[in-house]
Write a structure and sequence with these properties.
With 194 residues, the protein is an alpha+beta fold. The protein folds into two domains: 2-38, no CATH class; 49-193, no CATH class. It is 17% helix and 40% strand. It contains two helices and eleven strands. The protein has helices at 2-16, 21-38, and strands at residues 49-56, 59-66, 94-98, 102-104, 107-109, 112-119, 125-130, 146-152, 161-172, 175-183, 185-193. A six-stranded antiparallel beta sheet has the order 1-2-3-6-7-8, with no helix packed on it. A five-stranded antiparallel beta sheet has the order 5-4-11-10-9, with no helix packed on it. Strand 6 and strand 7 (125-130) form a beta hairpin. Helix 1 (2-16) packs antiparallel against helix 2.
């Protein structure tokens, strides 16, 4: 768009030279104003929508979440209180979808789409798959909709992870790990495709 304005300015300015300097100034100011408003600054979202997708054996696993940043805050035990349910992302609840049954912590997570929640704690986290995948934050969270709960031990990495990140890693043809990292914490758990 700016190129079109510059070409227009050149054409107008060359024709204005015959009409005098005053006309030239007015036309230039009007065109500069238009070009500034034609391209407003776009702000980058603070918690961009993100997804992680992987194939492990015949299983297509998809995790969908909004990825908040640390932004010089204390996250776990600060912004997010210990021992309270968190939707494991920003805005809408994080969800996981699998087209195959997965065995996690000795229990079967049936093929389907689930809300993914956690209860952070300094020693041990509770990981939750909930049948209500389409909810804002934890507003509609109901423990009676949980289909799978298990414990995971948090790891403390050496470097701070600025933005929340999920990874699905294939370890064999039929197994893998799912991890969630943010700030100074990583939790990871294995799964087996059934």
């Amino acid at each position: 768009m700016k190129i079109q304005y510059y070409i227009f300015v050149l054409i107008v300015l060359s024709s204005c030279e015959q009409k005098g300097e005053k006309t030239k100034e007015v036309v230039t100011k009007e065109i500069e104003t238009v070009s500034k408003t034609a391209e407003p600054d776009k702000k980058k979202p603070l918690s961009p929508h993100t997804e992680t997708i992987a194939m492990v054996g015949d299983a297509h696993i998809h995790i969908d979440y909004s990825s908040p940043g640390v932004r010089d805050r204390i996250i776990f035990g600060g912004l997010l209180a210990y021992d309270q349910v968190w939707q494991a992302g920003a805005h809408m609840a994080t969800w996981l979808e699998t087209n195959k049954d997965l065995e996690i912590d000795g229990k079967v997570l049936k093929a389907g789409k689930y809300g993914f929640f956690v209860i952070p704690n300094q020693e041990e986290w509770t990981v939750i798959f909930n049948r209500n995948w389409n909810q804002h934050g934890k507003d509609d969270y109901d423990a009676s909709d949980d289909v799978l709960r298990f414990k995971a031990t948090p790891k403390i990495p050496e470097e701070i992870k600025e933005h929340l990140e999920y990874k699905i890693n294939k370890t064999t043809e039929t197994s893998g790990t799912i991890s969630m990292s943010w700030e100074k914490v990583t939790i990871e758990f294995p799964f087996e495709v059934k």
